[in-house]
């Protein structure tokens, strides 16, 4: 099984406070890996260090055998990133933004079929600023998929989406997975983690407190339900 993302002993601190501590991650091609943890646990910092947009204090990262800091240009063609808050030109239309994004890559997917797949066909001519929060979120996933990537990074996957849109996004991701695309996601929703993730890591204060499958996480806890187990791991269970 090919390893697409390998992280070894990753550490990052801000003002002498460790926010990512000695994290090891190994993700196989075609797997969906979920990075979990409470607000401030270190998920985004870990992802940014993996992507090379933040520099770690120590440790190594390899994506598709490349160093994300040194091989930035080459990697850019092969990975898709869903941004949480992206700043776009105020009046740009959905189709224009997709076209601009596609033009950044040597090869790209047909964005019209992606817009259709994510229920945004009728928004092609709308300004991005006029979209609802959930529509924007779906558009950001479309943008991440335009380069036809081998790996997709999705930070807070379905935050802000309604129930139907969440299910649609899950189905689209399962279809990507079936195509052999590797997905690294963060999520605060344990139902979607259960549906999507082959493997999870739960972070607490920057430390790995569990890594394995959802069913292994449940088995190693005193609970039967994954959400209860997750809250137990993160010490957020009340009562
Ligand atoms: N640029 C920065 N300077 C100082 N501290 C930072 C910086 N960026 C992040 N932090 C701190 O690092 C810790 C981890 O933040 P991070 O954004 O990685 O958490 P997260 O798990 O992604 O949280 P959330 O679920 O809220 O997105 C937090 O305590 C945060 O305040």
UniProtKB/TrEMBL annotation:
GO terms for molecular function: ATP binding; ATP hydrolysis activity. Keywords: ATP-binding, Nucleotide-binding, Transport. Gene3D superfamilies: P-loop containing nucleotide triphosphate hydrolases. It comes from the Bacteria. Belongs to the ABC transporter superfamily. This is ABC transporter ATP-binding protein. It comes from Anaerocolumna cellulosilytica.
